[in-house]
Design a protein that fits this description.
Chain A is of the alpha+beta class and 324 residues long. Chain A is built from eleven helices and ten strands. Helix content of chain A is 39%, strand content 19%. In chain A, helix 8 runs antiparallel to helix 9 and helix 8 runs parallel beside helix 10. The longest helix of chain A has 22 residues. The N and C termini of chain A lie far apart (57 Å). Chain B is of the alpha/beta class. Chain B has a seven-stranded mixed sheet with strand order 13-19-18-17-14-16-15, with helices on both faces. In chain B, helix 14 packs parallel to helix 15. A four-stranded antiparallel sheet of chain C has the order 7-6-3-8. In chain C, strands 11-10-9-13 form a four-stranded antiparallel sheet. The longest helix of chain C is centred in the middle third of the chain and has 25 residues. Classes of the chains: A alpha+beta (324), B alpha/beta (506), C alpha+beta (500).
């Protein structure tokens, strides 16, 4: 076996620009923003900053530069180690030729892409028991944002199968709630991604309804995440739940708990959205969307904005509840 | 109706965990009642209320009671409970865990329940024990180590099959999992291609050719060079094939290997035919399509264009002076493929890894006038030395010797009397694990070769994303006088034609 | 032989599918070249590198053979499950003559077998002291002559269902604790004499003899009477409680001793009414126990032996069921090799010394008390007893680190003896000789140190590691014995030969 030790002789450092004190960081980047990163170098504007991420506008699209250990957004360049260069909002950096560069006059930082990840998830079908179990986990944790309309998840579930389509509930939800990613958007993103991951026909209508409103009604980041959800591209915590929903009930619990731990309320709304979307896709595959709407099941009192909400198709078999 | 009550003396889980496990099992279709609880007085009463017989258990004991419509549902409920309890059984991370490193694969696995794979690169004789530990901890194993006993490989793969895990290796140099490279691997964009590889450098060449055509590779599952031998029977290759076939994002599968043993070839062909995903078989060797042709076929299956792989050449090419061809390869499959291509032009050549033992020569072979193609990454040459992909110094040394006019093809500097090479073909492999700037090491001897009238042709195996910088490496090599191809087959063909031209114009 | 394909790997650990491989790995475990670990880190992948060292060349064949043997894991699980199922109960105190059937000129000692010629200073001192106590000799000189003449028959405590601390001498008149498992198995240990010049540390003379005589006359019968009134004391639960209260059960037994006294005190006092015992004698008993923080140690040792013995005799198991030292040799016994001892010269502990003593005064490691480590207590449970570092040296973090390291050598964790500071994780349980040899990491033992000169007594306390050759020899022997009977199958092995 060859030695895997590096040769002791001196070799030149990694080739790169040797302007002033240039530092070079590595990161992993989403294929959804690959065209931005590998295209010609161009200016990008810092539009927002959070504790673990800096958000850039590149040609009207959003690129998140995320600190090591931060949430791996579907439009992110995640640093291998450390945090993004501190740049103020409004500053202009450069993006392209495989790197993001920031700084000026002697001190520059470049982030090179060391690997690509694909945030898009694709499964063949969902498992009924797994979807039911996700619904149970979600409703066991009351996490709904009180500023959402009552029974939002249930209405979304019902309207996905309704003849009129989901436009009305979507209009009620887009941009609703606090934070960089409003809760209403999280719910919609979860449902959309769950539908798109199995290439459900219902995804198209939902995406269209969302797309009509997204640019005007919500934050840049949330709009980018909804756009990604339309390609079934999600954060890894949500991806794990979708894969678990396809594999059977065994891994749902662990995956769901990890998703629920995300953000203040984002995880819960994403999970609820996934449950709605997956239940619809499952019921539609079994007997058409009408069936899905016809078998509503209570999603726990107070689970969503103080009223009994309804989850389509998440029917649990009868059992002695004294057991728990 | 099936009813079962299981008592596990002394097993403890907290009530929240047990309630969650009960709830999960209750969702299994056909299950009526599930109670998983410590047998406290309260819970015993609960069991009684639910109509279960009183268990012989106390407050320190775990009771699992299931009532279901049929036995299979009850079994599934137990399965779900065990899964939920296992999920919770992660040991808490104490401060000590950050100070005391894991000394065994088992210890590392218990600390990292989320790690799906163990990379084993301990010396060959020890690899079996560590890889077996990985499988028994429920992980897949990538065995980079070579020098692993054949019986050990068979035993590992048999155990892996029984445990539903995959053994990648031994002697597996390249694995890519959804864009993450393990071992020697190039920076690829996850795309529609999955590769099963019994040849690491073959997989790298294929990845890079596809990358050059804008086609992304999602997974490369290495299986080890011996996997398709009769003794191993393609155990890992067949498992990997099935795995990729089930992966919805993989639209075409390529299987790269040396030609398999005949009985294994039949099994592989049958398995490939049974796949729902199209499979392109790519055995490398004499009479087989080159990996460049394979890449074009993959593109064809995907319905996208496959432009001829890029090449660049210096403004003023050297020589070539008359003399034999010398091949210096760090990738074994590159050497094999180049040998097959060159032989179509020049007739049989000698190699330390020649498929035909009659043409196999030691690496210090020095018969005057012989064309020699060497795999410098071969075990015999690298034992205890860095692999030439990690440190191209051995390539540089032999290039200097061959250009000096003192050595025969393949000879080192001390070889006297024979004439030097007329043309040298070599590969330069970029990516994770490879040297940070191989062109910097090779440019001086390449320039020296040009001055001596030796023509040099380089197969540059890399992607645009590789940290060494594909464009920079190509420019440095061209500036030093080498013709640079992305395709190994194209480099070998040009080298062979240069030799033939020099011969005919002599 | 590496390939035994007669037995499928059907131990229920089959994963349900392989697909967990086809997402970017959340983390990768690496063992071997750091280069490959670094390449992953450069891609932003979390890695868990194993600090791997090759096992000694001489043990390689045994390590491979036992790893490849399909029954090894199952045999170890069986051994450990049997051990974990034991619920020791403290039931009685009985004279040794009656309890283990030893008579005139017969003594038990700690560790593997040893004779007078090979015995170290403290063991010889304790033999002399026991001869004086039993009245077999009138002077130390006579006692030495008697022992040197081979008139005294010596045999290991472990061969008689006993475990003795330090020199471990058991003579016919000594009262012994009796611990049972409720299923007919019994283990015993002497009553703890306290600290200072005591027989178990090799001291002898009138003070030692007087104390032993009082223990025989007053202490033993009083405890026996109290225990019989009280009924069995659940020693297993007592151990669980003491570990939760900061004892590790070997060098720290303060909480456990108090718990035992608390449980027995009412019945002890009532024995005065039963007659035959004065209130003053009961008060003496309570004062004696109060003066001795190690009083419970011997109960823990007997309980530990009961637990460890349950794991013995499982064919093919590499679980260690005895670790014991006689002051000259360290010996271990392993589940799959029966009563056979594997020994190597004992080493001198490393630790803190009393008064004017120094390392030159310490005898090599001695005593059966390492039976506590054999079942996950003592050095293995140091994370539960950070105060122990005041006695054995080091910082509080070291205590936690030792336990963390020991988890890497054990098959399992004790289901009921749990460490609060580790989130109620069970103590490391079931030492695997195979892992000891694979890693080259020896178990850690908390121990007292006896003076090397007979008659000195205790000189300090500290940490000691067993010599690794014991474990290597045990592994070689295990690799030679027949593997566990495989499931019958008509298919012959298809792959022959062993590893290169």
């Amino acid at each position: 076996m060859p030695s895997l030790e590096r040769p002791t002789t001196h070799h030149p450092p990694l080739p790169g620009p040797s302007v002033g004190s240039a530092s070079r960081l590595a990161g992993s980047a989403s294929v959804l923003v690959r065209d931005l990163l590998v295209g010609p170098r161009r200016p990008a504007t810092v539009v927002a900053r959070g504790p673990a991420a800096t958000y850039l506008d590149v040609d009207g699209r959003l690129l998140a530069v995320v600190a090591s250990g931060g949430v791996r957004l579907p439009c992110a360049l995640v640093l291998t180690a450390g945090s993004p260069v501190p740049v103020r909002t409004g500053a202009v950096v450069s993006v392209g030729e495989g790197v993001m560069g920031a700084g000026s006059r002697g001190t520059t930082t470049e982030i090179v892409v060391a690997r690509w990840f694909d945030p898009r998830v694709r499964v063949d079908r969902y498992d009924g028991a797994a979807v039911a179990h996700l619904a149970r986990v979600v409703r066991a944790r009351a996490g709904a944002d009180p500023s959402l309309p009552a029974g939002a998840a249930g209405r979304l579930a019902a309207d996905l199968g309704a003849a009129a389509g989901p436009a009305e509930i979507v209009a009620d939800l887009v941009g609703r709630g606090a934070g960089l990613t409003p809760s209403g958007d999280d719910l919609l993103a979860g449902a959309l991604a769950a539908l798109r991951a199995v290439r459900s026909p219902a995804a198209g209508g939902l995406a269209a309804a969302i797309g009509a409103l997204v640019r005007l009604r919500t934050t840049r980041l949330s709009a980018a995440l909804l756009e990604a959800a339309g390609e079934a591209a999600v954060v890894p915590e949500a991806e794990a739940v979708i894969l678990a929903l396809a594999a059977g009930p065994r891994r749902v619990e662990g995956a769901a708990l990890r998703l629920l731990a995300l953000g203040h309320t984002s995880g819960w709304h994403l999970a609820a959205g996934l449950a709605v979307g997956a239940a619809h896709a499952l019921a539609a595959a079994a007997g058409g969307p009408d069936d899905a709407a016809a078998r509503p099941v209570a999603l726990a009192g107070g689970g969503l904005a103080g009223r009994p909400a309804v989850l389509a198709g998440a029917g649990a078999p009868g059992r002695a509840d004294g057991a728990r | 109706m099936t009813e079962l009550v299981r008592v596990e003396p002394g097993r403890y889980h907290d009530s929240v965990t047990l309630m969650r496990a009960s709830a999960a099992a209750g969702d299994v279709p056909g299950v009526d009642t599930v109670i998983a609880a410590m047998a406290t007085e309260l819970n015993r009463a609960l069991l009684d209320d639910a109509g279960f017989p009183a268990p012989d258990a106390g407050p320190d004991d775990l009771v699992i009671a299931v009532r279901a419509g049929h036995a299979a549902a009850a079994d599934q409920a137990l399965h779900v409970i065990e899964g939920a309890l296992a999920e919770r059984a992660r040991p808490p991370q104490s401060g000590a865990a950050t100070r005391v490193p894991p000394h065994t694969v088992e210890a590392a696995a218990s600390r990292a329940p989320e790690a799906p794979v163990v990379v084993v690169s301990v010396p060959g004789p020890h690899a079996y024990v560590e890889a077996a530990a990985a499988l028994r901890a429920g992980r897949h194993a990538m065995v980079f180590s070579d020098g692993v006993d054949l019986a050990a490989e068979v035993a590992l793969k048999r155990e892996a099959a029984a445990r539903g895990r995959l053994v990648m290796g031994p002697d597996c140099g390249t694995v890519i999992l959804a864009g993450v490279g393990l071992g020697f691997a190039n920076v690829v964009v996850p795309g529609p291609v999955g590769i099963v590889a019994a040849s690491g450098t073959g997989a790298q060449q294929l990845c890079c050719l596809l990358d050059g055509a804008g086609i992304g590779v999602r997974h490369v599952l290495g299986v080890g060079g011996r996997d398709l031998s009769a003794a191993v029977g393609g155990a890992s290759a067949l498992a990997a094939l099935a795995l990729l076939d089930d992966e919805p994002t993989v639209e075409v599968i390529a299987l790269v290997s040396k030609p398999p043993a005949p009985e294994v070839a039949a099994a592989v062909a049958a398995a490939a035919a049974a796949c729902a995903t199209p499979v392109v078989l790519a055995p490398v060797g004499p009479g087989q399509p080159t990996l460049t042709v394979v890449a074009a076929r993959v593109a064809d299956v995907l319905g996208v264009a496959f432009p001829e792989p890029a090449s660049s050449r210096p403004e003023v090419a050297a020589g070539p002076r008359p003399g034999p061809l010398l091949g210096l390869f760090s990738g074994g499959t590159n050497c094999l493929e180049a040998t097959a291509v060159v032989e179509e032009v020049l007739g049989p050549v000698r190699s330390n890894v020649h498929p035909d033992p009659a043409w196999r020569v030691p690496a210090d072979h020095r018969a005057e006038g012989d064309h020699v193609l060497l795999d410098l990454g071969d075990d015999e040459l690298t034992a205890g030395r860095p692999h030439p992909m990690i440190d191209p110094a051995p390539v540089a040394e032999r290039l200097v010797a061959a250009s000096s006019g003192e050595g025969g093809a393949g000879g080192a500097g001390e070889v006297g009397g024979a004439r030097g090479a007329g043309v040298v073909v070599l590969d330069v492999v970029l990516g994770h694990g490879a040297h940070p700037d191989p062109a910097a090491v090779l440019a001086p001897p390449l320039a020296g070769a040009r001055e001596a009238g030796v023509a040099t042709v380089v197969a540059l195996v890399g992607t645009a994303g590789d940290r060494q910088g594909l464009g920079r490496q190509a420019r440095s090599l061209v500036d030093a006088g080498a013709v640079v191809h992305r395709s190994v087959a194209a480099a070998a063909a040009e080298a062979a034609s240069l030799v033939a031209t020099a011969r005919s114009t002599r | 032989m590496i390939a035994d394909d007669r037995v499928p790997w059907g131990d229920g650990t089959r994963a349900d599918d392989l697909a967990d491989l086809l997402v970017p790995p959340a983390a990768v475990i690496t063992v071997g070249a750091p280069t490959l670990d670094e390449a992953l880190a450069a891609q932003g992948v979390a890695t868990v590198p194993v600090d791997w060292r090759p096992p000694p060349a001489a043990s390689r064949a045994a390590v491979v053979a036992l790893t490849a043997r399909p029954g090894t894991d199952e045999a170890n699980r069986t051994a450990v499950e049997r051990m974990a199922a034991v619920r020791p109960q403290l039931v009685d105190v009985t004279p040794a003559a009656e309890a283990v059937g030893i008579g005139r000129h017969q003594l038990l000692h700690a560790g593997p077998p040893v004779d007078w010629d090979a015995a170290s200073g403290p063991l010889r001192g304790a033999i002399v002291g026991a001869c004086l106590y039993e009245g077999w000799a009138g002077t130390p000189h006579e006692a030495e002559a008697l022992a040197a003449s081979s008139a005294i028959e010596l045999s290991p405590c472990h061969d008689h269902g006993c475990a003795g601390p330090m020199a471990g001498i058991v003579s016919p008149s000594m009262p012994l604790w009796t611990v049972t498992d409720g299923n007919g198995r019994t283990c015993r240990s002497t009553l703890n004499e306290g600290l200072g010049k005591v027989l178990r540390y090799g001291a002898f003379g009138p003070a030692v003899t007087e104390r032993l005589a009082w223990m025989q006359r007053v202490l033993g019968p009083a405890l026996a009477a109290a225990l019989r009134r009280h009924g069995p004391v659940d020693a297993g639960s007592l151990i669980a409680s003491m570990v939760a209260m900061g004892d590790e059960g070997h060098n720290r037994n303060r909480a456990g001793t108090s718990l035992l006294v608390r449980a027995l005190a009412p019945d002890l006092v009532r024995t005065v009414d039963d007659g035959g015992r004065s209130a003053g004698e009961v008060a003496d008993v309570l004062a004696f126990v109060d003066s001795n923080d190690h009083f419970l140690l011997n109960v823990v040792m007997a309980s530990a032996k009961l637990v460890a013995d349950a794991g013995a005799g499982v064919q093919g198991s590499t679980v260690v069921v005895t670790m014991a030292r006689n002051g000259t040799q360290f010996g271990i016994r392993v589940s799959g090799t029966g009563d056979r001892w594997f020994t190597a010269p004992a080493t001198v502990p490393d630790g803190l010394f009393l008064g004017g003593f120094g390392p030159g005064d310490a005898n090599p490691d001695i005593g059966d008390s390492a039976i506590t480590e054999t079942v996950g207590l003592g050095g293995f449970a140091m994370a539960a007893a950070p105060a122990i570092v005041q006695l054995v040296g080091g910082g509080v973090d070291d205590a936690a680190d030792w336990t963390e390291l020991m988890y890497q050598l054990t098959v399992s964790e004790h289901p009921r003896w749990t460490i609060p500071a580790l989130g109620f994780r069970g103590v490391p349980f079931g030492i695997d000789a195979l892992r000891v040899v694979r890693t080259g990491i020896a178990p850690i033992i908390n121990t007292g140190m006896a003076g090397r000169v007979a008659g000195t007594g205790q000189v300090g306390a500290g940490l000691v590691r067993p010599p690794l050759p014991c474990f290597a020899a045990a592994l070689d022997a295990l690799a030679e014995v027949d593997p566990p009977a495989p499931a019958p199958s008509a298919a012959p092995a298809t792959v022959e030969g062993g590893p290169s």
